[in-house]
Amino acid sequence: MRSLPAIVSAGALAVFLVTWAMAQTADPRRSGYQEMGASLRAMQDDDSANPGMLWVGEGRALWARREGAAGKACADCHAGETAMAGVAARYPAFDAATNRPIDLGQRVNRCRVEQQKAEPLAPESRELVALSAFIARQSRGQPIAPPDDPRLRPFVESGEALWRQRQGQLNLSCAQCHDDNAGGRLAGATIPQGHPTGYPIYRLEWQAVGSLKRRLRNCLVGMRAEPYAYDSAEYAALELYLMSRARGMAMEAPGVRP
Questions:
Q1: pLDDT by residue (tens digit) across 186-205?
Q2: Active-site residue among 74, 174, 177, 219?
C-alpha cells in the first residue's frame, strides 16, 4: 500500500499537470472589459446603469419609425427585438455592389437608401450610432464570427498591414501599443489588447456612444497622424482585421470604457 505522503505528492502532481494543461489551452486574448475596475464593469453589466442603453433605446425608436419616400420602417422587414441577433458579430461583410467590405453603419445606410428611399445618415451621427447600438445589442453574448469569405482575405491583410504600420509624427503603430505593450500602463490606464468586442461603446471620455471608427480616429490623432475620412476603405480594412483577430470572443455591446 502506498504511504499517505506518496498519495498526497501524486495528487499534487496531478493537480499541477491539469492546471498547467489548462493554462496552455486558455485563450490569452482579453477584452478591455477585463482590464477595467469593478465599478466600470458593474456599470456595463447593469442595463439600468449602462449609459449606452440610452442610445439603444433611441435606436429602437428609430427602428420602428417610417422613413423616406417608401414610408417604410426597418421593423417592417425585420420585426422583433431579436430579428438582428448575430448580425453585428458578422460585420464588416463583403459588398458585391462596391466590391469591398462595408461595416454595419454603412449597411444601415444602404437599407435606408435602397429600401426606405431615404437620405443616408451622416457618419457617426447620433441616429446612425443609435441604430447600430440597437442592432449590436441583439448580438450580446454571441461569438464574433466574421464571414469566411475568400473575397475578404486581401482586405484582412490590408488591415493587418495598417495595424503594424508606423504612422504620424510619433512614428507609432497600433501594434506597438496593443500587441507589444498590452497590459502595461499609459497615463494611468491599462493598455488593452484592442479587441472590438464592445462597439458601439460608451466612453466616459466622450460622454457618448461611438463607433469603432471613432476610436480608431482617436488613436490616429493620438499618434499625430492624419485620420482617414469616415467612409474610407482603410477603416473598413482595420475593422475587418480586428474582428478576424477577435474571432470567437463574445460580443458585449454596448460596452463601457474609461
A1: 888 899 999 999 999 999 99
A2: 219
